[in-house]
Amino acid sequence: MTDRLRIAVLGASGYTGADLVRLALGHPQIEIAALAANAKAGQAMADIWPHLAMYPQLPRLVKADAIDFSTIDAVFGCLPHAASAELLSTINGPPSGPRIIDLSADFRLKDAATYADWYGGAHPAPGLLPEAVYGLTEFARDALPAARIVACPGCYPTAVLLALLPLVAAHAISADHITVNALSGVSGAGRSLKEANLFPEVAEAVHPYGIGRHRHMPEMEQELGARAGRDVRISFTPHLIPMNRGELVTCIVETPHGVDYLREVLADAYTDEPFVHLLPPGVAPATRQVRGSNHAVVNVFADRVPGRAIVIAAIDNLVKGSSGQAIQNFNLMFGLPETMGLEQAPLFP
Prior knowledge:
Blueprint (H helix, E strand, L loop, with lengths): L4 E6 L4 H11 L4 E7 L8 H4 L12 E2 L11 E4 L5 H6 L10 E4 L9 H8 L12 E3 L14 E3 L3 H15 L8 E7 L14 H4 L4 E2 L8 H12 L6 E6 L6 E8 L4 H12 L5 E3 L17 E7 L5 E8 L3 H15 L16
Parallel strand pairs: 1-2, 1-4, 2-3, 4-5, 5-7, 6-7, 8-10, 12-13
Antiparallel strand pairs: 8-11, 9-10, 11-14, 13-14
């Protein structure tokens, strides 16, 4: 392939949008043709993202309605929920329009009523839900090449599902008793000004939020239930921790099997995966192992309580949990090598 694929990034002034631009700059088959941001339209990326100042070739930010989408091959939607579906539903699909890779929550849930219950309003484009592919790449490869709309998973579901989907699918653990404690860096809350995200509010402290009812819960339950063959309910508690990026989930599960068998299931699932890695026995996943990369690390440990095990996974919430996974999906949608543009090693220290 000699002609590069032209992309548009909607919401380029947010953290996920900026990280997508960062990754796209290193992708040999991507041309960044348009960047959109509502409030910051007219500004250069360097005006709002100092780390992109050395890329003056980047398009200036415009409002989305100024983009000629007939000239675009793929649109990455990095907008808040509801706003994303409302805008993306106005874009014609192939052959005259682009394919859509949405990083919001708008196309992740298959049921519009479930979306309304958890997101506080009717779905803006329920007619598009049946054609949206849930883009957890490692479990969506067969559907991605023909997909017009791909819904990238949330950051918490990405980590949790990578840890648990193979085990649930193999009936190696009970789908009835899953407890997840999750930790995420502050960038997961977005870039909008919020008092709770100010440095004095988050520094030197850890706090839970969304207790008992976090919006990512139905997404995880939908995908776990699809593998279990029945409805699944989990206990999930996220925590905000004082670091910029990174995510770690600790999953307490019940199993009639030993840890060695659970490791065998995970090894079978991930041995040939380019980005998901089962660590050696006894090595605990940590966010420092994946920072700035599209990699995920997972491992399983015995619990001192008989019949239980602990499955832990770590990702970078902005890369594998968001923009990196979006480009991984893009590559498969357009017949490119899956790892293209995502080969960078983790940053350490």
